[in-house]
Automatic annotation (TrEMBL):
<keyword id="KW-0378">Hydrolase</keyword>
<dbReference type="Pfam" id="PF07722">
    <property type="entry name" value="Peptidase_C26"/>
</dbReference>
<dbReference type="GO" id="GO:0016787">
    <property type="term" value="F:hydrolase activity"/>
</dbReference>
<dbReference type="InterPro" id="IPR011697">
    <property type="entry name" value="Peptidase_C26"/>
</dbReference>
<dbReference type="InterPro" id="IPR044668">
    <property type="entry name" value="PuuD-like"/>
</dbReference>
<protein>
    <submittedName>
        <fullName>Gamma-glutamyl-gamma-aminobutyrate hydrolase family protein</fullName>
    </submittedName>
</protein>
<dbReference type="InterPro" id="IPR029062">
    <property type="entry name" value="Class_I_gatase-like"/>
</dbReference>
């Protein structure tokens, strides 16, 4: 049997302020290849060159990765604000439609950070552009130096920052074998109101939604607010999630054979 093929969404960037490119963080690709056992295949977050139906005929699963850009507020009926830029409206169009299509077709879907947010919006939910501005919330953004620059040490940036309480008996609790975990935190935007089919399965100590499942999905359809692609070879929480995603890929592949 061939390796399951996993579509990993690309993000729009401009290199050297001249060249428009699509990029995927290598950690995502390695997590798929080395832990889930799949063949990662990047696809463009551009609706004019990405045929979703053809893509889903090709892959056995989809990963919606994290990204610097926020989901555009008009997607959940809020006016945009310059201070919450950048946005990536083309990725929005692909990822939101793709989330619904994956669930409808029974294709495993794993949303990470922005991916969780996209899944929530796709099913009618809303987001807050700066979770830390809500009363009682902590700063969930990545650690920075006193001068405002991002901390240069990735072990500091991706260090575990807070606890997450999981729903007893839920999908995450079953996969991870516990009801409390500790995770990293590298986001500003977060879920405000969950979508109609979005079940909350993990909440941070300050009330921020950290793990979701799409109700009545026929296969793996989970999202996490933390960066689960970070060091899944050694981080047992992230490893178990990518292993569970890999199991769903194999099951899907066999069913489609």
């Amino acid at each position: 049997m061939r390796k399951p093929v996993v579509g990993v969404i690309g993000n729009s960037y401009r290199v050297e302020n001249r060249f428009q490119v699509q990029m995927v963080g290598e950690r995502n690709l390695r997590a798929v290849a080395e832990v889930s056992g799949g063949l990662p295949l990047m696809f463009a977050g551009s609706p004019d060159i990405t045929d979703i139906a053809a893509l889903l005929d090709t892959v056995d699963g989809i990963i919606l990765t994290g990204a610097r850009a926020n989901v555009h507020p008009t997607r959940f009926n809020v006016d945009p604000c310059e201070k919450h830029e950048p946005y990536d409206i083309h990725r929005d169009e692909v990822a939101l439609a793709l989330s619904v299509a994956c669930v409808a077709r029974g294709i495993p879907l794993f949303g990470i950070c922005r991916g969780l947010q996209e899944m929530n919006v796709a099913f009618g939910g809303s987001l807050h552009p700066e979770i830390r501005e809500l009363p009682g919330r902590m700063n969930h953004r990545m650690p920075r130096l006193e001068n405002g620059e991002i901390h240069p040490d990735p072990t500091v940036v991706f260090a575990d920052r807070h606890d997450v309480d999981l729903t007893p008996g839920g999908a995450f609790a079953k996969i991870l074998g516990c009801e409390r975990i500790r995770v990293n935190s590298l986001h500003g935007q977060g879920i405000l109101d969950p979508g109609k089919r979005v079940l909350i399965e993990g909440v941070a100590e300050d009330g921020t939604i950290e793990a979701i499942r799409i109700a009545e999905a026929p296969t793996f359809a989970l999202g996490v607010q933390w960066h689960a692609e970070y060091d899944p070879q050694h981080n047992p929480i992230n490893r178990k999630l990518f292993e569970a995603f890999g199991e769903a890929l194999v099951t899907r592949q066999k069913a489609a054979a």
